[in-house]
Design a protein that fits this description.
Two copies of one chain form a homodimer. The first copy, chain A, is mainly α. Chains A and B meet through helix 8 and helix 9 of A and helix 8 and helix 9 of B. The structure holds a DNA duplex (30 and 30 nucleotides).
DNA sequence: CCGCTATTGTGTACAGTGTCCACTAATGAC
DNA sequence: GTCATTAGTGGACACTGTACACAATAGCGG
């Protein structure tokens, strides 16, 4: 019987496999490419099996989106960690801010499918690690906040200007990633793109100064 | 016969109707909602008729996207035109810059579907009205350039900083529209959103100063 | 150890989509 | 007026998401 082979998989294997498969699909084709039936095929299971783990395709996509966001967060954390220098060192603080932005843009450029998927939330689903201290560095916004606080401690950013400034900065970098990634500026040559990135970084620094 | 009713429509009526129908679908549901068969239904024509005017669904979507972009450009132009004051008047120039950004964000918020569709180019298709003088004010980037030039003429922006600065500014506003529209910040209350907009505007002005 | 129940995967089915092919009626050039 | 081109029709196919009924397994209480 076919059924004999049925429950050989460990506990959450199918669900995890579906998310992994969805991630793979999203990597090459963006959110549109994460098609439920294809994901189940990759896991080696019948289409309807997915409905034991997700209410519908949007819920699967939400899980994939969250995974993609985690991937972005990881790369940002790695980029920041690569900058030497102790907390309070002004030069290091400035470099860390640059590293965050660079990692963000690098991810958007190297993994356009995952980047688009990370920000394609198909339905409301909480995100962003608000002011909860724990796990602050696990999400993009949290990491940016940490670095901005360090800039304040290092004396490079006026404490009175600190409040809420993560949003304009995030917007600027995110907007550039969108415009040069999936947006109208997507076909500009690489050199031009780098030039725009430098322009954007100095624009931000100019505003912080 | 059915066929007797066939070619009663004026010349490009079906094509225009399809774009209009697609625009209507996009308005309420974004790019995903512009489904070819539904558009043909709205026009009162059989699905395959669309293929006489568009190679495939993506080409229809591209036309709808372009129309949505035109709509955005119109609203921006209207917003700028509403600001009184002659060219060279510093106060007017600054207000016009604000009006451009405000119109952009207002459109993104009031017509999220059209905004998303305008920036969801399904395939390469030129855009942006480069340095071609004619029709400069018909596209978002061109309008922004015009206002920035006015800021230079009014002495509010150092001419040496003018080159390319439209991109960071566009990025900032576009990024905010994305994050607060379809992105992770989409569920914040209206008051908070307005606060973020003000923060963002002063962030930009701070960088220009 | 046995039987019960919730869990998880299967099979079948249906509506809706994009798109292909062959066909046909109207249009406009000659 | 003939006739090729254009623009719409009709039918078909593969694929999608999803609903319903069913079956096999796992883990439980006894």
């Amino acid at each position: 019987m076919r059924g004999a082979e049925r429950r050989r998989r460990p506990r959450g294997a199918v669900r995890d496999g579906l998310v992994a498969a969805g991630l793979e699909l999203a990597r090459t084709g963006g959110p549109e490419a994460v098609v439920l039936r294809e994901a189940t095929r990759m896991v080696g299971v019948v289409p309807n099996a997915a409905y034991r783990h997700f209410a519908d395709r949007d819920e699967l996509l939400a899980a994939v989106s969250a995974a993609a966001m985690q991937e972005l967060a990881s790369r940002m954390a790695a980029g920041v960690a690569r900058v030497p220098g102790k907390h309070g060192d002004p030069a290091a603080a400035r470099q860390r801010l640059g590293a965050i932005g660079a990692a963000y843009l690098e991810f958007a450029h190297e993994e356009p499918g995952l980047f688009a998927t990370a920000f394609a939330l198909p339905q409301r689903h909480a995100y962003g690690a608000p002011d909860d201290g724990t796990g602050r560095d696990r999400m993009p916004l949290g990491q940016l906040r940490t670095v901005l606080d360090e800039l304040v401690d290092a004396g490079l950013l006026d404490r009175r200007r600190r409040d809420g400034i993560e949003y304009p900065i995030w917007s600027t970098v995110h907007g550039l990633a969108m415009l040069t990634g999936q947006g109208p500026l997507r076909d500009i040559p690489g050199a031009t793109r780098h030039h725009l990135e430098e322009l954007t970084f100095s624009f931000i620094e100019e505003s912080l100064a």
